[in-house]
Every structure is written in structure tokens, then in C-alpha cells.
Design goal:
Chain B: InterPro entries: AAA+_ATPase, ABC_transporter-like_ATP-bd, ABC_transporter-like_CS, ABC_transporter_ATP-bind, P-loop_NTPase. Chain B: GO terms for molecular function: ATP binding. Chain B: Keywords: ATP-binding, Nucleotide-binding, Transport. The complex is a heterodimer. Chain A contains 13 helices and no strands. Chain A is mainly α. Chain A is flat and about 75 Å long. The model of chain A has no long low-confidence stretch (mean pLDDT about 90). Chain B has a 6-stranded mixed sheet, sandwiched between helices. A 4-stranded antiparallel sheet of chain B has the order 2-1-4-5, with helices on one face. In chain B, helix 4 packs antiparallel against helix 5 (about 140-155). The chains are: A mainly alpha, B alpha/beta.
């Protein structure tokens, strides 16, 4: 116990410091796990004692048996795979598309002036309201779902990234120009790399937004996927299925977010903080 | 006939526009700089000192007047010039070795030989051990030395220095002044420095010009005596006549500032 708490200490004082630090970190984790266990236990208990109606609010054991049943039928992973794929494709397309659009707008300051009000209108629009439009143009299929995820992410990405492009420190640009840099050189060597942290930040936000787009898209058109399971479970009043889908969405969304956070830490490990 | 001057400015006027007004930053300014000369511009903030450098660098176009560099008219950034600013401008995602060749890259001159030369320069600045470090790992003085290497890497004939040392503490400042003046003397380069530091102006300049008024004009010229010019920056500050030069410059700058 002692050896673990004080491992790597340079002096008795440092050992004391490390010990405090690690004990606190351990407590953080213990409490996190306790909160989870308590939540599940209270839910399960309340359902069994009859404080809440398990028919409406389900219970951890019912969700689990629902999961086992779907998994053994082989359906669960099909739904998970489909929705994950749509979401990943959605936020990657939305982010890449947004960055490309921002680049086009940056390339022509005049164009950016002209397009500005349209971007603001598009950004203010609730994108899910475009759902029917996507269905009539793209059909009631995966394309509409993807379009929804892209629509929800691409405009805000364009606006944010374009603003970041413009706010790159003027002294860098002055310096590059004094070396006779062309506009395209300034973009490639300075502005674009300077904004990579912002692009990854956009990617992080877009993961969450793409989930909204995909789930709403699946509500509207799909015959498979987690959004479909939610709406189907609701229609046949199988709230266990709804709850299970919500739990799965929470887990996968977190995993995706963590993947991006890991990517961010890797790509930006040499950069100055702040 | 091509002129023998490194820089020849004749009747230079620069005006810029905003939505509400038209501001004349410089009016009818004439100035010549000899090859190998170190000219320092001092004066109150907003008197157009930095504008003069931007005009010489070809980053902005004057309203009227003529600028010639080594006999050629300026239109756009010249490959014979390199600029150094108060902000080091080191790119956070590039190592020192990658940062110092930025100018070479932008001018498409990053040949193996040029890069090897730049590494030698880095070594002369006592920085070869940090070649693979990132800027955030360096102190302010080291960062500005890397910026100096980047400036010299493109082998400029004329250096434009816009308060390059003003953010540094006195030790680093004098150290960098020393490195800079050594390189300039060795390689016979011409330089124009803008600074607020009157001691620095006298310690490293050959000629100090006080710019003042709105629009800016040359109000006073202080030639630095040869015996002070011959001394390195630290020793120059200890020269017996340094104080009286400083007082003279101080008096003139203050007088001009009050007039404005």
C-alpha cells in the first residue's frame, strides 16, 4: 500500500505530497463508482418495492434481460453498429465539410461578406425542421439520416472555424508577408495549422450534435438503429427497450468523445497550452 | 543611374483611411541609409515609425514619394529584406529547427545547403542544443534568439527591426544586442531599428533619428561618435560621453512629444 502511494518519490517531502495527491485521486474514483452503484441499486430497489412503476420506468435488471435477449437474437449489435456508423460518418463529414466551406469563404473575403447573412440564417434554423425536406429529396433511408447529422454540424463548424481563421495573430501574418508569402502559403503554413486545435474542438462538439441528428433521423425514417429502437419501444410500450437504447447511446457517445479527446491529446502534445 | 544607398526615401507620404477619417501618418519624409549603416528610429508612440518600416518592406504602398532599395524601386516585399518584430512569431507546432527555416520555406529557398547554414547560425547563437525543442519549452530570450536566426537565415542585406528586444529583461536585451551587432558587423549588413529604449538606440546605432509630430517627420538627428560605435553594446553604455548623448536625446524626444 505504502509503496504504491509513494512510488517515484524523490524525497520524504515529495513522498508526502504524492501520497496526498494519490489518496485524493483514489477517493474521487471510489465516490464515482459508489454513486453509480447507489443509483443502480436505488432504481432497482424502488422498482421492486413498488415506489416506481417498472412498466413505465423499467429497472436495471429488466434492462439487462432485455439486452441479453436482443444480443442473443443477434439484433443488438446490428442496431449499435448501424447507428455508430451513421454518427461517425455524420460528424466527420460535417466537420470536414465545415472546414472546407470555411476555407472557401476565407479564400474570398468578398464572398464571405456576401454570404454572411445566409450563414447566419442557416445557423439559426433548427436543422431537424429540415427533416421532411431531406426525406422527399433523398428518400426515407440512411441518406436522409446522414444528411440530418451533416446539416446539424456543418454550418456551425463553418462559422466557428472561419472566425478562428480570421483571429490568427496578426503578427504571424505580418511576418509571413514580410518573407513574401503568397495568400495560399499563409493559409497552408500558418492559418490552417494554427487552427488545428479549434478543428479538434469542433470535432468534439460535433460528436454530440451528430448524435442528435442521427437519432432524430432514425425517429423519422429508419427501420433499424438505436433511434429506431427507441421509437419502436415507445410505440409498442416496451419501455425496457427504450431505456436499454438510451443506456447504449450514453455509452457509445462517451466512448466516441473519449476517442476524440485521446486524438486531441496525441495531436496537440507539443503545443503550448493557453 | 543606380544609387549607392542601401535605402533611399524621397518625399514619402503615407495616408490610410478608416470609415470616419483619413489619417496622414507620414508626410514628405526623406531619408538615406548607407550600406552597412545601423539607423535607429525613436519617437513617441503613433508617430509612424513602424509605418516607415512597413513601407520600406513593401508591405504597404505609399500614397506618394519614392523608396529605393539598393537602387531598385520597392514594389512588394523584397527578398533582400528581413523583418523582426517584438513578438517572436515562433509557430507553436514547429520545432526550433523547423521555425528557423520558415522564411527559407516561404521563399522556396530551403535547400540542404541553406538549412545547414542556418544550423551553423543557430550554433553561433548558442542554441544548437534546443534545435528539436518546441517554442513553449524556451525562455523569452531564447525565443527571440531563434527569431533572430530565422531573420538572418534568408541572408537579408537589410534588416528591419521593430522593437525586437523591448519585451526582454535587461540581461537578455544586452545579450541579444551583442549578438545582433556582431552579426551585422561581420556580414556588413544594413539595419533600421525602431525602439523606445533611448539607451539601446545610442548603444547600438550609428545614427539616431527622432521621428515626431502628426503626420510623422524626422525632427532631430543624433550621429553617434565613432568611439562609441566601435564599442560593444554593454561597454558603449559605460563610455564617458554616453550620459551626455542620452541627455541630449532624452531632451529632444521630450520636446518633440510635448509639441505633438
Amino acid at each position: 500500500m505504502k509503496s504504491w502511494l509513494e512510488r517515484g518519490a524523490a524525497s520524504p517531502h515529495h513522498a508526502l505530497y504524492l501520497r496526498r495527491l494519490r489518496i485524493r485521486q483514489t477517493w474521487v474514483w471510489v465516490l464515482r463508482i459508489l454513486i453509480f452503484i447507489a443509483f443502480v441499486a436505488v432504481w432497482e430497489g424502488a422498482a421492486r418495492v413498488g415506489w416506481i412503476d417498472p412498466f413505465l420506468f423499467s429497472s436495471p435488471s429488466l434492462i439487462w434481460s432485455q439486452a441479453v435477449q436482443l444480443a442473443t437474437a443477434g439484433e443488438l449489435f446490428h442496431h449499435i453498429g448501424l447507428t455508430s456508423l451513421e454518427t461517425a460518418a455524420g460528424f466527420i463529414l460535417g466537420t470536414v465539410g465545415g472546414i472546407s466551406l470555411a476555407t472557401c469563404i476565407w479564400a474570398s473575403p468578398f464572398l464571405s461578406r456576401v454570404l454572411d447573412p445566409y450563414l447566419v440564417i442557416l445557423n439559426s434554423m433548427p436543422k431537424v425542421a429540415l427533416g421532411p425536406l431531406f426525406i422527399v429529396t433523398l428518400g426515407a433511408n440512411g441518406a436522409s439520416i446522414l444528411a440530418m447529422a451533416v446539416a446539424i454540424t456543418i454550418i456551425i463548424t463553418t462559422l466557428v472555424i472561419y472566425t478562428r481563421f480570421q483571429s490568427v495573430d496578426e503578427s504571424y501574418l505580418h511576418l509571413a508577408r514580410s518573407f513574401g508569402a503568397t495568400r495560399s502559403q499563409i493559409f497552408r503554413k500558418i492559418i490552417f495549422p494554427a487552427c488545428i486545435p479549434d478543428m479538434i474542438a469542433a470535432l468534439k462538439v460535433n460528436v454530440g450534435l451528430a448524435w442528435v441528428g442521427v437519432i432524430v433521423g432514425e425517429f423519422l425514417v429508419s427501420k433499424a438503429g438505436l433511434g429506431y429502437l427507441i421509437i419502436y419501444g415507445f410505440q409498442v410500450f416496451n419501455l425496457n427497450l427504450v431505456m436499454l437504447s438510451l443506456v447504449v447511446v450514453a455509452i457509445i457517445a462517451t466512448v466516441m468523445y473519449q476517442l476524440i479527446a485521446w486524438l486531441e491529446a496525441r495531436l496537440l502534445r507539443h503545443r503550448q497550452r493557453g | 543611374m543606380a544609387s549607392d544607398y542601401a535605402v533611399q526615401i524621397e518625399y514619402l507620404t503615407h495616408t490610410y483611411f478608416t470609415k470616419t477619417e483619413e489619417v496622414t501618418a507620414i508626410r514628405s519624409l526623406s531619408l538615406t541609409v548607407q550600406p552597412g549603416e545601423f539607423v535607429v528610429l525613436v519617437g513617441p508612440s503613433g508617430c509612424g515609425k513602424s509605418t516607415i518600416l512597413s513601407l520600406i518592406a513593401g508591405l504597404i504602398t505609399p500614397a506618394s514619394g519614392r523608396i529605393q532599395l539598393f537602387g531598385d524601386p520597392v514594389n512588394g516585399p523584397s527578398p533582400r529584406i528581413a523583418y523582426m518584430l517584438q513578438k517572436d512569431g515562433l509557430l507553436a507546432w514547429r520545432t526550433v529547427a523547423q521555425n528557423m527555416i520558415l522564411g527559407l520555406e516561404l521563399r522556396r529557398q530551403a535547400t540542404a545547403a541553406a538549412i545547414a547554414d542556418t544550423h551553423r547560425l543557430l550554433d553561433e547563437m548558442g542554441l544548437s542544443h534546443v534545435a528539436h525543442h518546441y517554442p513553449h519549452q524556451l525562455s523569452g530570450g531564447m525565443r527571440q534568439r531563434v527569431a533572430l536566426v530565422r531573420t538572418l537565415a534568408v541572408r537579408p542585406d537589410l534588416l528591419l527591426l521593430d522593437e525586437p528586444f523591448s519585451a526582454l529583461d535587461i540581461q537578455n536585451k544586452i545579450h541579444l544586442e551583442h549578438l545582433l551587432t556582431n552579426v551585422l558587423k561581420e556580414q556588413q549588413k544594413t539595419a533600421i531599428l525602431v525602439t523606445h529604449d533611448l539607451e539601446e538606440a545610442i548603444a547600438i546605432g550609428d545614427r539616431v533619428l527622432v521621428i515626431g509630430g502628426r503626420p510623422g517627420q524626422i525632427k532631430y538627428t543624433l550621429p553617434i561618435p565613432a568611439d562609441i560605435r566601435a564599442l560593444p553594446p554593454l561597454e558603449a553604455r559605460a563610455h564617458p560621453s554616453f550620459r551626455s548623448l542620452f541627455s541630449e536625446l532624452w531632451r529632444e524626444v521630450n520636446r518633440i512629444e510635448k509639441l505633438a
